[in-house]
Amino acid sequence: MAGERQGVGLRRRKGVWRKGQEERVKGMEKILVVVDMQNDFVDGALGTKEAVEVVDRVAAKIEGFEGRIFATLDTHEQNYLDTAEGRRLPVPHCIRGQKGWELNGKVLSALEKKGYTAVEKGTFGSVKLAGLIGEIAEAEAGGICVELVGLCTDICVVSNALLLKAYFPETDIAVDSMCCAGVTPKTHEAALETMGMCQIDVR
């Protein structure tokens, strides 16, 4: 039984359950959420080579996207080490106003060309982001569909994907796996599997 359930999750990730999705999203307001593509997560305090590798793909994704774009910014203050997160991850990062807090240059350039809404967040998932997307959903008679990209797959991407799925259970929510990177390749894959099991479309 456990093997069967795992197989269902794997098939979901491979897109077997996406039949007809392209038809459903026609006429919907498309939303792209770019999660925490900040210097500290790319090549700074918490950067990885995998994060560096996705920068160009994320920039290209933004440039080719037609719809509304949100970009989240992990935002901490000078007292970060005194917070609950800081005590568990004692690596100061994304401190407001510092270079590491700023968006990666290539990603920022792409965002500025297309136009975007910045959303600061002090923790992994953003309730504010959900609220802003909810306002769009209420105004769009044709519905919405949401896609997420960014960093880190296993922390802030999965947190926001699951939060949005909880707020909008009937909405098509997807994650572009080629435009995400995790803390490690193993945890990246684990997060993708978790999202797939929660009926988020992993592309």
Structural commentary:
The protein is α/β, with parallel strands linked by helices and 203 residues long. It has a single domain (27-202), classed as Isochorismatase-like (Rossmann fold, 3-Layer(aba) Sandwich), CATH 3.40.50. Helices cover 46% and strands 19% of the residues. The chain has 9 helices and 6 strands. It has helices at 2-13, 21-25, 39-42, 49-64, 84-88, 105-114, 127-139, 153-167, 185-197, and strands spanning 29-35, 68-74, 117-121, 144-151, 172-181, 201-202. The protein has a 6-stranded parallel beta sheet. Helix 8 (153-167) links the parallel strand 4 (144-151) and strand 5. Helix 1 crosses helix 9 (185-197), helix 4 packs parallel to helix 6 and helix 8 (153-167) runs parallel beside helix 9 (185-197).
